[in-house]
Fold:
Amino acid sequence: MRLDGKVAIVTGSSRGLGKAIALGLAKEGANIVVSARTEVENPQLPGTIHKTAEEIQALKRRVLPIKCDVSSEQSVNDMVKKTLDEFGRVDILVNNAGVAFYYPVIETPLKRWEIVLRVNLIGAFLCSKAVLPKMIEQKRGSIINISSLAANEREGGKVSTGLAYAVAKAGVDRFTWGLAAEAGCFNIAVNCLKPQQVVDTEGMRFWVKEEERKGWVTPEKMVKCAIFLAQQDAKGVTGIVATDEEICAWHGL
Ligand code: NAP
Structure:
C-alpha cells in the first residue's frame, strides 16, 4: 500500500469529495482525521464525520473524527492539536472544505461573501499554517488544496457558482504555488487539484435541480489524483495547479 502508516487530515470529509478522498487514502493504508462540522445527520445534506469514520474503521485503519469549522482559527488549532496528541504526526493535509453561494454579486450579502472566502480560502490558510510546524519538523509533508475551474473559467463572463466562490478559489490557486515556493526548502509539497467535470456530491445535489444534472461524474479520478499527490514531497511533484484529468494524463494514472 502506497500510504502505509501515514496520517492524513481531510477537511470537509463528512460527505462528498472529501469523504471519497478520505476513504481512498485509507484504502492505501493511511490513518485518517475526518474533519468537518456535522455530527448529526441532516436529511437535506446527508453525511456526518462519524459515518465517514465508521466506513474508514471498517477498512481496519485508525481514524479520528473531529468536529472542526475551518473558518475559525481556534477550531483549526484544536483539531491539529488533537491530531498530534492521537497520532504524533501529520503527513498529509487535504484542504477540501468548501461552500459556494450561487447568486450574482448584487444578491450576495456581505455575510455570505465573507463566509465563502473564510471557508474556501482562509480555511486553507489556517489549516496549512497549523500543520506546517510539524511537517517542517518531520522534514516532509504533502498539502493538497481542492480548487475549482470557477477560478479561471469565464463562460460569457459569468460563473454559476457565484463570484465569491470564484474569487476564493482563485485565491486558493495563488496560495498553492506561493506556499509551494515557501515550503519547498522544508521538503513539503503543495499542490492544487480541481475536477475537470462536475462531481456528483451531496453539496452539488443541494444546489442543482435534477433535470440540470448532466455529465456529472463520480469522484474516482479526483481520488486517484489525491492518492498520487499525497505521496509527493518537494523532491517530487509540487507547485502545480491542475485538473484531475490533466494529472491522470500527465502521470499515467
Ligand atoms: P459538499 O458535498 O458540499 O461537501 C463540502 C464539505 O465541506 C462538507 O463535508 C462540509 O461539511 C464541509 N464544510 C463546509 N463548510 C465547512 C466549514 N466551515 N468547516 C469545515 N468543513 C466545512 O461539496 P463537494 O462537492 O464535495 O466539494 C468539496 C470540495 O470540492 C469543495 O472545496 C468544492 O469547492 C470543490 N469542488 C467540487 C466540485 C464538484 O463538482 N463537486 C467542483 C469543483 C470544486 P460540514 O457541513 O459537515 O461542515
